[in-house]
Design goal:
The structure holds 2 protein chains of 2 kinds.
Chain A (H helix, E strand, L loop, with lengths): L3 E4 L2 E4 L5 E7 L6 E7 L6 E7 L5 E2 L8 E7 L2 E6 L8 E8 L7 E2 L3 E5 L1
Parallel strand pairs in A: 2-11
Antiparallel strand pairs in A: 1-3, 3-8, 4-5, 4-9, 5-6, 7-8, 9-10, 9-11
Chain B lengths: L8 E5 L4 E6 L8 E7 L6 E6 L4 E2 L4 E4 L5 E6 L8 E8 L12 E6 L1
Parallel strand pairs in B: 1-9
Antiparallel strand pairs in B: 2-7, 3-4, 3-8, 5-6, 6-7, 8-9
Classes of the chains: A mainly beta, B mainly beta.
C-alpha cells in the first residue's frame, strides 16, 4: 500500500515552456503533499507544502508565481513550472502522507531538462 | 529548524549487519525520527520511524537513545539491494520545514 504515482517521469522542453507535473496518491488519501527539488549529488530541498483545499506554503527563496501548486483533491497535487528556463532543470519529487507524524510516501520523481 | 548529522559514507559486506548512526542533538519533544533511503534517479523510500521507543519492521530496526539525541538504523542482514543513500530526518508533523542532509551513502560488497 501507500503508493504515490508521479507523472511524467522525464520531460525535455524548450526554454519558455510551462511544464505540469502530477502527483497522485493511488491507495490512500493525502492530507498533505510536499514538493521537493534535487540537484545532482545534493540532498532534497523542500519547495512547498500543500494541504488539500488550501494554498500551498512555499519555502523561502521559492517563487510561488513560477512554481504553481494546486492540491485540488485528497489524491492529486500538481506542480506547474511556468516559463521554464535552463536553471530550472532538476529532479522534482513529490511526496504525500495521510496525517501528521505519519511517514511520507514518495513518487519516483520527474527529471526536467530545459534546453 | 531541526537538523541531523550523518556520516557521508559507510561500507558493509553482504549478509552482515549494518548500523547507520544519526545525531540530532537539537531534537524537540514533538519530533519524530524518520529514516528514508534513496536509490539513484528514484524518489526516496520510507524505511522506519519512531518517537522514543525502539521500533522494528520488516525492513529494519530503529534504536533511539534514551536522551533522543541520537538514533541508529539497523539493517540486520545487508543485501546488495540495500545499497542506497540513507537519510535521517526529524519531523514534528506540524509542517515545520523538513531539512534533509546529505545522508549516508551505503555501499554493500558482495
Amino acid at each position: 500500500g501507500a503508493v504515490v504515482s508521479q507523472h511524467p517521469s522525464w520531460v525535455i522542453c524548450k526554454s519558455g515552456t510551462s511544464v505540469k507535473i502530477e502527483c497522485r496518491s493511488l491507495d490512500f488519501q493525502a492530507t498533505t503533499m510536499f514538493w521537493y527539488r534535487q540537484f545532482p549529488k545534493q540532498s532534497l530541498m523542500l519547495m512547498a507544502t500543500s494541504n488539500e483545499g488550501s494554498k500551498a506554503t512555499y519555502e523561502q527563496g521559492v517563487e510561488k508565481d513560477k512554481f504553481l501548486i494546486n492540491h485540488a483533491s485528497l489524491t492529486l497535487s500538481t506542480l506547474t513550472v511556468t516559463s521554464a528556463h535552463p536553471e530550472d532543470s532538476s529532479f522534482y519529487i513529490c511526496s504525500a502522507r495521510t496525517g501528521s507524524n505519519q511517514p511520507q510516501h514518495f513518487g519516483d520523481g520527474t527529471r526536467l531538462s530545459i534546453l | 529548524d531541526a537538523k541531523t548529522t550523518q556520516p557521508n559514507s559507510m561500507e558493509s559486506n553482504e549478509e552482515e549487519p549494518v548500523h547507520l548512526p544519526c545525531n540530532h542533538s537539537t531534537i524537540s519533544g514533538t519530533d519524530y525520527i524518520h529514516w528514508y533511503r534513496q536509490l539513484p534517479s528514484q524518489g526516496p523510500e520510507y524505511v522506519i520511524h519512531g518517537l522514543t521507543s525502539n521500533v522494528n519492521n520488516r525492513m529494519a530496526s530503529l534504536a533511539i537513545a534514551e536522551d533522543r539525541k541520537s538514533s541508529t538504523l539497523i539493517l540486520h542482514r545487508a543485501t546488495l539491494r540495500d545499497a542506497a543513500v540513507y537519510y535521517c530526518i526529524l519531523d514534528a508533523g506540524n509542517n515545520r520545514k523538513l531539512i534533509w542532509g546529505l545522508g549516508t551513502s551505503l555501499a554493500v560488497n558482495p
